[in-house]
Amino acid sequence: MRKTFATTLFLASTSLSTFANASECGTVTIADMSWNSATIIANIDRFILEHGFGCDAELVPGDTMATGTAMIEKGQPDIAPEFWSNAMKSALDKGVEEGRIRYAGATLTDGGEEGFWVPAYMVEKDPSLATIAGIKANAKLFKHPEDPEKSAFMICPSGWNCQITTTNLYHALNLADDGFDLIDPGSGAGLSGSIAKAYERKEAWFGYYWAPTAVLGKYNMVKVDFGSGIDEKHFKECITQDDCLEPKPTMFPPSAVDTVVTEEFAARAPEALAYLNARAFKNAQMNELLAWMEDEQADGEYSVEHFLTNYEDTWSQWVDSATAKKIKKAVSEL
């Protein structure tokens, strides 16, 4: 009788312990940022945390500055899945020092990628066009839309921060000396549309773009090598500044893109935190997802089913086998 009672107590305590572990995650708020790569990652996190870890996960609207400030000052939301941390690096680092937030891992293992690009079909025909020397030697290929005596270099739309960097690098590379003129596309849609138009017609194109984006998922583009390497110090101190008087050539350094979580969440949900530490994407993969998302006109929630169904080899590496089974079962019931 005593042995039976002890066994019953052991089983009861084990059940309570299991229940506690399953419910420790509690309610989790996830910032759903206002661009597609961020929204698909937020939805993936919501699904996996809910079905794999038993969290009561919900999405809340987010944006870089507002979300970062709220996490540091108010402890909410719990998770920012795609945070371009250079945008408020000092404030984030201070929040880490004060024990309010922490970096959970790199969301994009390549970092945010920027550069000057040309279509791959041009490089296949002439490999020198993968270099700035080759671009300058063949400037006449890049026809100006209004002036036949000049060549076209597409930059960021007015008002975007990257217009400062692209303009400074245009001067650093002395592109004007080779006949290149700055072409403002007027909007992000205008810039992406110019690449799509060039690709459809197999025309020459040279300009700025970034990843991860649907455009670089749809169109095979080659990043032009300046032959300079990366001078991160000069890039930050001069190339990014409107008053950069002596710009020098440098490739764009990758931008840190992290998952940021509150310390309170990290403390109460270590297993969920381990998933976020492991969860990461390569730009090529994210470009592919974003291209699919755009072609299908899919929202973040619908894109999760596509990702979990077609990229099991990727996401199953982020969790243990038991958790993976729970997620697969939930996907099969969609």
TrEMBL record:
It comes from the Bacteria. Transmembrane segments: none annotated. The keyword Signal applies. This is ABC transporter substrate-binding protein. Residues 27-309 form the ABC-type glycine betaine transport system substrate-binding domain. Residues 1-22 form the signal peptide. Keywords: Signal. One of its GO terms (cellular component) is ATP-binding cassette (ABC) transporter complex. The lineage of its organism: Bacteria, Pseudomonadati, Pseudomonadota, Gammaproteobacteria, Alteromonadales. GO terms for molecular function: transmembrane transporter activity. The keyword Signal applies. Pfam families: OpuAC.
